[in-house]
Amino acid sequence: MTELRNVEIDLARFRLRVFVMSLVVISCFLLLAVRLVYLQIWRHDDLRAQAESNRTSIVPIVPNRGLILDRNGVVLATNYSAYTLELTPSKSINVEQTLDDLAKVVDITPRDRRRFKKLMDESKSFESLPVRSRLTETEVARFAAQRFRFPGVEIKARLFRNYPYGELASHVVGYIGRINQAEKAKIEDNDDQANYRGTEYIGKLGVEQSYESTLHGTTGVEQIETSAGGRAVRKLASNPASPGNVVILSIDIKLQKLIEDMFGERRGALVAIDPKTGEVLAFVSKPTFDSNLFVEGIDQENWQSLNESPDKPLLNRASRGTYPPGSTYKPFMGLAALETGTRAATTIINDPGFYMFGGHRFGSPENERGGPMDMHRSIVESSNAYYYSLANEMGVDAMHDFMAPLGFGQLTGIDIQGEVRGVLPSEAWKRKYYKRPDQQKWYAGETISLGIGQGYNSFTMLQLAQATATLANNGVKHKPQLVVATQDVSTRVRVPVANEPPVDLGFKPENIAIIRKAMVGVTLAGTSAKVFAGAGYTSGGKTGTAQAVGLSQKEKYNAAKMEERQRDHSLYVAFAPAEDPKIALAVIVENAGFGSASAAPIARRAFDYWLLGQYPSEEDLAAVSKGLATVPTGTPRVAAELPWPPPPIAR
């Protein structure tokens, strides 16, 4: 029997299905329409920017770093372009294997590997890190032919910093190095991140650090159209980088080299200043280091050699090394006595060769003549007893209050970072410095040795040079200045760097004259007379000998029986010419004995160069560098006619 179908029901079902499918289709089209409107209208600008970004690439243009010149235009820091082989660790499956394979194509030394691993530890994995720098054209071509084998490895042309004279003036010039995480955070905090796009290096020390913003320049950008494969097709727009400005130092690099050579292998520091302006003419710290070692990241071997050396070549002794000033402090003590009314210049103090206080004998050198001393003779002959008694009369706080404005124990504000204060003692200082109550008390006996520049006194050569320059400039103090001008690379317009206004400390001219006359007496008839015999000018100075280690009351100083690093330091402060000073300096030669033996001969040759244009003879220079010279020997050379750099001294 045949079953009859209900056509009406089937038709209703069919119509329902068509309706449902129509609703589905219409819904889909509505969704597409809504999505289309959303993308084309609401997200139009965003998507257009993304499309443009896919089509184009923004490439930073790293600016050329500014040059550093000395006062006469000698280039102390410059740039050169070279190819670098770089690897991005995140793009390499096995970094060690990649390095092994690369070594078969390009020469990679163990030093290169150590430096790369150090950089990899300090950096993020997606950063491109140098494996080898300064590739030859042959090495570049050899790698280019096999580049497909090394994902994440590429050749880049980069600018490298170069210090033509290596170790010369390295503490002044400083160096650049790769930006570390702390420096990145600082850049971000200063909203300077855009200016360091594409830049991997920053100033780390000296002028390179202090004048980073001037030397760095302004980063530019290029807009490049790229293919789907990421290859550059054409340049769409460009905003060129602005190179860093030239920085011009007050340093005379030939004088700087002369002084560094005169130190030889010895340790010490010298700061020379123009007392009328505060310009630093020489800023020496010995030993030095080669700034070029740090440019590409110093390797572990060289770092250990510098960091663990007992001579501490990385220590800037001129602004961070602190020393007792010894007898170089006596002229300032004499000025303090006159200005505070503690003593008149004519007051006579008997010097029996020692000073007794509280049952303690404060001694004097065995070669000190002693006898009745007025202020002039006490400076010329360097009487200890005169200044022991003066310190006792003045007291520690009165000495502190007078010496602080001269710059002792204070930051000078010189335009490189890192200087230290040293110690200018006072009762308040001792209470703050020590924790135990019995240590915080100031004892009267502690005051006595301060008068001859010993005890707690501890200053930098920069502070001592500034104080000497202030004395030479009739009590008018200038802030020491290393950079005198900047110069725009494009316009060559030179802009002076303004120094702070000088400060007149208000000393009486007659008191200044008394002290300066006594310091002239030191070079004519006193402790440095032999060194300055026959000089073509008159200078004022003061020798000093400072203890490196303390001796008990019964011990006698005997250099021959002491280790070299325990011997006294040799110091000298001076200015010249005496009637109108154009240069003032402070110098220390560590563990070299009496000031007239090692420090004063260096000062004499520095004055001869600056005032007379004379450069020591080869034999004289060799003798000074070994501490074996007093008055210059041989025929001095004309400094202006000497080739640059001057030939090395004979050892």
TrEMBL record:
Q: Which InterPro entries match?
A: Beta-lactam/transpept, Beta-lactam/transpept-like, PBP_dimer, PBP_dimer_sf, PCN-bd_Tpept, Penicillin-binding_protein_2
Q: Which organism is it from?
A: Rhodoferax aquaticus
Q: Which UniProt keywords apply?
A: Carboxypeptidase, Cell inner membrane, Cell membrane, Cell shape, Cell wall biogenesis/degradation, Hydrolase, Membrane, Peptidoglycan synthesis, Protease, Transmembrane, Transmembrane helix
**Pfam families linked:** PBP_dimer, Transpeptidase
Q: Which reaction does it catalyse?
A: Preferential cleavage: (Ac)2-L-Lys-D-Ala-|-D-Ala. Also transpeptidation of peptidyl-alanyl moieties that are N-acyl substituents of D-alanine
- Topology with regard to the membrane? Single-pass membrane protein
Membrane keyword on record: yes
Q: What is its EC number?
A: 3.4.16.4
Q: What is the protein name for this chain? A: Peptidoglycan D,D-transpeptidase MrdA
Q: Where in the cell?
A: Cell inner membrane; Cell membrane; Membrane
The main location is: membrane
Residues covered by the Penicillin-binding protein transpeptidase domain: 268-607
